[in-house]
Amino acid sequence: MATPDVSTFTSTDLDPAPYIVSKPTATSKTIPAHHSHDPVNNLKRSDPFQFGSRYLLPEDDPFEFNAWDHVEPSNEDLDRFASQLAAQRAAPVSDFDRNRFNGDPAQWWNRFYANNTSNFFKDRKWLQQEFPILKKVTRRGAGKKLLLEIGAGAGNTCFPIAKENENEDLMVHAYDFSPKAVDLIREAPAYDPKMLRAEVWDVASPDLPLGLEEESVDVVLMIFIFSALHPTQWRQSVRNVWRVLKPGGEVCFRDYGRGDLAQVRMKKGRWMEENFYIRGDGTRVYFFDKEELRSIWSGELFRIKSLEDEGLNETKVDGPFIAERSKDEDATGELTAIGSSVIIGSLEPSTKNPFEAYFKIESLGVDRRLLINRQKQLKMYRCWMQGRFRKVDMSEGAAAD
User: Fold this and answer.
1) Which of 15, 165, 338, 342 yields a CA-CA distance of 20 to 30 A from 375?
2) What are phi and psi of 333, to 5 degrees?
3) Residue 303 phi, psi (nearest 5)
4) pLDDT in tens, 313-345
5) pLDDT tens figures, 343-394
6) pTM score > 0.85 for this model?
7) Which residue(s) pair with 343 in the sheet?
8) What are the CA-CA distances from residue 142 to residues 2, 126, 139 (Å)?
9) Helix axes 179-187, 105-115, angle to 10 degrees
10) Partners of 254 in the β-ladder
């Protein structure tokens, strides 16, 4: 699989079209409680809690609060990131370790969960606010619904959902490819097999898990799991998600974004491929950008791959592997590669692969946060990708926004 050339980082690389937000002005009369220094109303969080509501204005002192929302890195920070990434590439993981970590990734997650139980991660209580579909399937009288969580870990997603659930006909399947993680879920006091089923399954495997039929799932949750996969596993994983979802079913997705603090802080000997690393505990992590995810989940990336498999790759593409529609494309729907003007193929589904149409991108955004260490006067940038992808019938095609 080709990899994008990101030898130089720019603000475009780090920030592919962040959320469009309306910022308050300095003269706004209403100040939210969590942005106030009034001792009578100095709350850390608003009630009800709201994400993304503390904006850093030009006149603000960034060290006044511990965190700010939707803050883009400065040019100075981007230069520092580029320097650190260049140092990472110059000192990659050894071939021996690359084979060791890629050979059996589940064993490293088993070790992780053996050392870190459910107390390592916080319960994700924000899920229903960020993904409204979860409110619909868990409300009283919603009817028979099946929710599938892929990469369930120790249950920090499925248990909060179960706790808030009012739908007596809801069933949650929580799958992870780490047997130790599944054991933690099953052994938890909150585990109720009448509503929650935890099983071992690798989403990148060629087979679906036993007991899960095709087109039987209403909602798939993928929270910080796609980044654990090797890029060569993306296609099969997306294909499996497409297979289990009902037509019109939805994927709720959140994962690491390119330029995140966790990427920038990677030490020497951790870089395996572009944007793909090994953590100190042996687990793998990939950092995405918005257009890359759009290409993966809309199926455009795999349609290009299918064209290559069918011998239609006589023309070399010099740009990154992420494809986009040309602004002046003709009726054949031809594609060009980002960074290249070379046309590389048609959007018509491959006759050799029935899974060329994947998902409609309902929403896909960049969630940025600036964390502040006021004591050390340090700025730390976090970046996450969040999206909702809907399975469409093959006759509809895989339209993207």
Assistant:
1) 15
2) 70, 35
3) -65, -40
4) 433 332 223 333 333 333 333 332 322 222 223
5) 223 333 333 444 454 799 999 999 888 888 888 878 888 899 999 999 986 6
6) no
7) 336
8) 44, 21, 6
9) 40
10) 223, 386
